[in-house]
Amino acid sequence: MSTQDKSLSDRLFAPQWAGGWQLSRILLALAALAGHLPRAWGIGDVYGVQDLIFTMGPMTLNNHVQWSEGTAWGLWTAGLLGLFGLVWGGRAAKPGLLLWFGTTVLLLVNETLNVKAYDRLFMWVTLAFLLSPIGERKLTRKWRSPAGRWVLLVVFMALYGSTGWLKAIKEPTWWTNGDVLAYHMLHHYFGMKTIGVWASTQKWLLLPLCWGTVIFEAAFPVLVWFRRVNPWLLLVGALMHLGIRLFMNVGPFSYLALAVYPVLLHPEVAREWWERWQRRSAGGVPSSGRTSPT
Are 241 and 254 in contact (CB under 8 A)? Predict the structure, then answer.
């Protein structure tokens, strides 16, 4: 390997401020709880049912074993305990995340034909968090490998970029009249919220929302890398996800996306904001946190 290659590798994997992971760990646990708790109402009807079994693609476990209602309750309870470990943090964080993830996958094999987009996104996000330093405490004073952040960046670049460019190229109504967004707000399965039904009739609102969505998603894979633009880009993304949550029923999707934003925020920008907040909280006293990556 040449000196130039080593230098590039060193720059890519040089330790970065890890404080963003501390907040994201809690937000991820809350987002997972928002998806996990409602599954309790499906135990015995969806996850522990014996008379309606589906399999598809690689999810063929139901061809060999079906969960009883008691087993489904056990899996759900174990997943809940795992999320408590993730909230607790420290050495319990990653085992707790793995426990929740494993039991959730086992439950989802009974929901094969109805696995949601946020369930699939949770799987990729879980991989990134397992590569992160969430098993340590006091991360606001530490610098760690950016491997987990790189995974999140790739996942969200693919998520936003693919949907944004498909909208821009293949779905012209996102540019012309806003009807496509009105349709989503009125969709039987993930629409029909009172405020969404109202918004679906507001032409003055729909078109700017459509334009903003397409431009944000299509531009994200490029603009997220620029330090000065990164915070503003994520602010637009946060507003988009809050709008999705306000106007539509999409489960914990918006919560999951927002949970990773503290890590997607440029680490040095995040560190500066954290230290500024510390100084204000301390009445202007300089922060005693670590200021070097060693």
Answer: yes
